[in-house]
Design goal:
single chain; mainly alpha; two-stranded antiparallel sheet; 11 helices; 2 strands; 66% helix; globular
């Protein structure tokens, strides 16, 4: 900018769009006036810290709101109040990065054993695997190792697919005239971020701490942490999220709110199963 003064009434010419304006921000493109204090080493370090970690006030504030008051952040976003919070999609990508880089619970993934013997599409999965193993001349044990290794990566990369699938039942159950599909999609992004923070990352941290404590009494938490327990955790936590969001995002109240929250959990469970079904075929196709 032309002037380094911090006087809010000072005139400037924007270096990005060339427009004249008063204050610290261009009212056309939003470019900020760079002041001497903005070039200090302290400000530089703070920007580096924010850029390389998730220690950002907006992130922490937005994440806490997502946990304490589900649906509020999405409501603020779709209503146009976005300055004070991190956008739901930005928060999702930060949490998904942590989910991708660190060894945490695979809440959205399923092993080959689960695909073949637990999930509703297990008969189809068995037929597909049988043909694949026969055509490639592989042993089932070798194929299982290859599959489990491959599907973990795909489950993390394709998580955005679950976001889209989860928005479909929400848009049907909470159908309203003043809500567009993109509004339901925004809530689905927040819900997936909630699951990443609580059910994948948060639960992993808790289990690591508990494991270290109960090692003294020879308690093995792996015996209790299976598909059934993870499903129960998924249902209960998402019921909490949708029940609160039904009020804060959709303005639902009374018995209607309870009924729709229960339907919402069923819809999310079906969305998760559909995601695992697609993930199975994508993984098998890639092998």
């Amino acid at each position: 900018m032309e002037n380094g003064s911090s006087n809010p009434l000072s005139e400037h010419i924007c270096k990005s769009c060339g427009k004249e304006f008063r204050g610290l921000y261009c009212n056309v493109c939003g470019e900020k006036v760079i002041e001497p204090k903005d070039r200090s080493f302290r400000v530089f370090l703070s920007k580096v810290l924010i850029a390389t970690t998730i220690v950002d006030n907006k992130f922490v504030k937005s994440l806490l709101l997502t946990i304490r008051q589900p649906g509020f952040l999405s409501r603020e976003y779709v209503d146009g109040r976005r300055v004070n919070y991190m956008r739901p999609l930005q928060m999702f990508f930060i949490l998904n990065l942590a989910y991708f880089l660190f060894p945490v619970l695979q809440m959205f993934n399923s092993s080959l054993y689960t695909q073949l013997y637990v999930l509703p599409h297990r008969q189809i999965a068995k037929e597909v695997v049988s043909k694949k193993v026969g055509a490639e001349g592989l042993s089932i044990q070798g194929f299982e190792m290859m599959y489990n290794d491959k599907t973990n990566g795909f489950a993390k990369l394709l998580l955005v697919l679950f976001v889209v699938l989860a928005s479909l039942p929400l848009s049907l159950i909470f159908r309203k005239k003043d809500r567009y599909f993109t509004d339901h999609l925004a809530l689905s992004v927040e819900l997936t971020s909630f699951n990443l923070a609580i059910n994948a990352i948060g639960l992993s941290v808790v289990l690591v701490i508990m494991n270290k404590i109960f090692k003294w009494s020879n308690v093995t938490w792996g015996n209790y942490l299976n598909e059934l327990t993870l499903t129960i955790v998924f249902v209960l936590t998402n019921l909490y999220f949708i029940f609160i969001a039904a009020n804060s995002f959709y303005n639902q109240r009374g018995k209607r709110r309870i009924f729709k929250a229960l339907l919402g959990v069923v819809g999310l469970f079906l969305a998760l199963e559909a995601y695992r079904f697609l993930l199975f075929f994508i993984t098998v196709w890639s092998l």
